[in-house]
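Backbone-to-sequence.
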């Protein structure tokens, strides 16, 4: 119980596992949350992480009761985390002209937005009382400007950025740091099916190293890699007409089932 504790959602693959391994190597105990708890337990064993250093909680972030209960269970069993990383997220294309895709949009918001707030909820008051802690939200550069066929994901990540900014202001004087991390293109299952170019594509392990440093420093907002941050700022500054012309012919994000 003397080692620091990192609580990470979406730990069954991709960025979640990469960050879990990075925190383990830094000497942290882990509390990992995923819908597929058995898979996470098998992965932890394969990595040689001892059971006493890693607890696994099975919960779906879309289920508010389940994910908040997982947070309370973590506190009861392992203590109050030093770092909470709300990483769970989904990325699917939509076509608003197709009725069924409205349900995809709902699911995206429930996962990426409500799920993030519900992940943080059990920890905010006790962290504020303690006077320390890190609440980390994984956003995306896709939240900076809208992309064709990607309306649900882009909108959800834009909401993540604004939500975390609001939360940062609320907790500013408490000693609890709110960190917004915006990944660019990372080689994970979320990007494997993308039908367009992905500049500055990173491996999850490289992302995890940079994210760890960002979170440890308590930096409020960072795009990883920095090159995507430059691109994002330039894209944000473009007039709408020029931005729209640049996207002509760009492949749409694949829809669910494609």
């Amino acid at each position: 119980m003397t080692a620091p504790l990192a609580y990470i959602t979406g730990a069954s693959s991709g960025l979640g596992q990469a960050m879990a391994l990075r925190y383990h190597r830094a000497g942290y105990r882990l509390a990992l949350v995923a819908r597929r708890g058995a898979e996470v337990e098998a992965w932890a064993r394969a990595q040689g992480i001892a059971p006493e250093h890693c607890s696994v909680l099975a919960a779906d972030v879309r289920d508010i009761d389940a994910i908040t209960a997982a947070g309370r269970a973590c506190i009861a069993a392992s203590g109050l985390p030093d770092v909470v990383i709300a990483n769970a997220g989904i990325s699917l294309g939509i076509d608003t002209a197709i009725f069924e895709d409205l349900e995809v949009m709902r699911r995206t918001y429930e996962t990426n937005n409500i799920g993030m707030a519900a992940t943080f909820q059990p920890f905010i008051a006790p962290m504020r009382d303690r006077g320390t802690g890190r609440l980390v939200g994984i956003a995306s550069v896709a939240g900076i400007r809208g992309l064709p066929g990607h309306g649900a994901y882009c909108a959800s990540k834009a909401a993540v950025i604004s939500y975390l900014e609001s939360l940062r202001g609320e907790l500013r004087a408490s000693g609890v740091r709110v960190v917004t991390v915006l990944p660019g293109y990372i080689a994970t299952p979320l990007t494997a099916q993308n039908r367009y170019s992905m500049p500055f594509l990173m491996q999850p392990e490289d992302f995890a190293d940079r994210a760890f440093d960002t979170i440890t420093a308590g930096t409020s907002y960072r795009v990883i890699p920095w090159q995507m941050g430059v691109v994002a700022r330039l894209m944000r500054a473009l007039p709408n007409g020029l931005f729209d012309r640049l996207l002509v012919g760009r492949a749409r994000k694949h829809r669910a089932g494609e």
